[in-house]
Amino acid sequence: MEFEEEEEFVESKPRYSETEKYRIFDKEFMPHIDSMYNFAFRLTNDEDDANDLVQDTYMKAFRFINSFQEGTNAKAWLFRILKNSFINDYRKKSKEPSKVDYQEVETVYNSTEDAEFESTSDLRIEAVQDMIGDEVAMALNGLPVDFRTVIILCDIEGFTYEEMAKILDIPIGTVRSRLHRARNLLKEKLRSYAKSMGYKELR
Amino acid sequence: MAECSSNVLMKEECENHEKCMKMIQAVLDGSASKEEIEHFKSNIDVCKPCFDGYQLEKSIKDCLQTKVEKKCCPQNTVDQLKAKIGIGLLLLGGFLIKLKVIQEIFLS
Where would I find the RNA polymerase sigma-70 region domain in this sequence (chain A) (predicted)? Predict the structure, then answer.
């Protein structure tokens, strides 16, 4: 699936004066910069790349500010730009393996869904509760980026499925399915950590 | 069949567990429909696999929300960005214009 870089920017007549542009940027966009940086960092796993991605996103947001309707969901709009910038720019430049094909990944996990549940159902709540943040973060970082993305958006940033569907440009049903599979994979990672910590499995 | 603390008999097996788990996750995520929420409320205490699944999903979600460090954007990045956009300059410009207008009002 290829994302068009400018897809989210619908060229429109300038609605905002220069002063309004700066006001909107300062009041509606800047308050989300920490969340944006955190998202960028979780996607890239690198502070410098996260910095570049955030700056690039905000520059684009300012450049195309007339496409933003004041009073609508600025955070979701910015996240969508950042996600597209990551896919279109960062991934092309990075040494990371070529991007994951959503359909391919989902087909794989569809076919192994039942087996997956069997292997993850033995994760104990106590083991999860005893884990430290770094262990959970490592498990999260170990997921393919497309699955990592849905978990970050939902569990860390608190977006609704509807917002995630807009950010990721996919139907809500796909958000649900992808999240479900992402969580099964995360449980598998957490189970491995739990096992290495010496927790006994349930079965 | 198992018995839960509230003396309600619980099913040991769930014939639609994958489907149920998607629904349970939607409930935890605050994105479930009214029907799903009703279904969840009326069934969660009678199905052990779903009850256990709910507890585990909830603990993982809590863990992600509270234990994973939320990185803050370095001030340097914020400053660089504002410099690029020229927002500081504009705010200063706006302030000076206001000041000038006020001065002119009082002087006239």
Answer: 32-95
Q: Is residue A108 located within the same domain as residue A183? A: yes
Range B61-78 average pLDDT? 93
Mean pLDDT value of segment B83-100: 70
Å between B42 CA and nearest CA of chain A: 22
Q: How far apart are CA A177 and CA A172, in angstroms?
A: 9
Cβ contact A133–B67 (<8 Å): yes
Separation of CA B34 from chain center: 19
For the domain that residue A155 is a member of, what is the CATH number?
1.10.10.10
Contact A179 B56 (CB under 8 A): no
Residues in contact with B93: Cβ distance below 8 Å, sequence separation at least 6, in sequence order? none
Instruction: Give the pLDDT of residue B32.
Output: 95
Assess if residue A172 is contained within a domain. Answer: yes
pLDDT tens-place string over residues A142-199: 999 999 999 999 999 999 999 999 999 999 999 999 999 999 999 999 888 878 777 6
Closest CB to A151 among B56, B64, B73: B64
Q: How many A×B Cβ pairs under 8 Å? A: 114
Say which of B59, B73, B94 has its CB closest to residue A125: B59
